[in-house]
Amino acid sequence: MIDLKNFTLGSTQVTIERYAGSYTDGIFSRTLSDTILTWASVQPYSTVEPDQIFDPAMGEYADEIRWMFTTEKVYINDPDETVNPVVDQILVEGAKWKPIKVEVWQHLNNKHYQVLLKKFDGF
Fold first, then answer.
1. d(Cα 107, Cα 110) in Å, to the nearest integer?
2. DSSP sequence for the chain
3. Which segments in the chain show pLDDT lower than 50?
4. What is the pLDDT of residue 6?
5. Domains within the chain, CATH numbers bracketed
6. N or C: fewer beta carbons within 10 Å in the chain?
7. How many alpha carbons fall within 13 Å on the CB side of residue 68?
8. pLDDT digits over 10-20, tens only?
């Protein structure tokens, strides 16, 4: 029998570190602008259905991937976004993860985000 209690939405406490970035004299720097403590479901990424694969963005290969479901909005690196041009970092059980793909799921009044995470490697 499979114990499903760890696969419910909101079973793991995570910290989202939100950064802001700016250029000064041609040098890009980022600063921590907000820390959000929230709950999520974080699971190993795998699927048995080939048509259900949630691929990362091009160029974002990762050996270790996690799937996260949360009600908190998560940002990925978007060069066209001037307000938040740098990626969020997610702390889960002492490890840092980088969101590499985010999808919004809306059902009636219930909105949550499906996030693909890879181990943060400094970039």
1. 5
2. ----GGGSTT-EEEEEEEEEEEEETTEEEEEEEEEEEEEEEEEE---S-GGG--PPPTT---SSEEEEEESS------TT-SSS-S--EEEETTEEEEEEEEEEEEETTEEEEEEEEEE----
3. 1-7
4. 47
5. 5-119 (2.40.10.270)
6. N
7. 30
8. 578 999 998 87
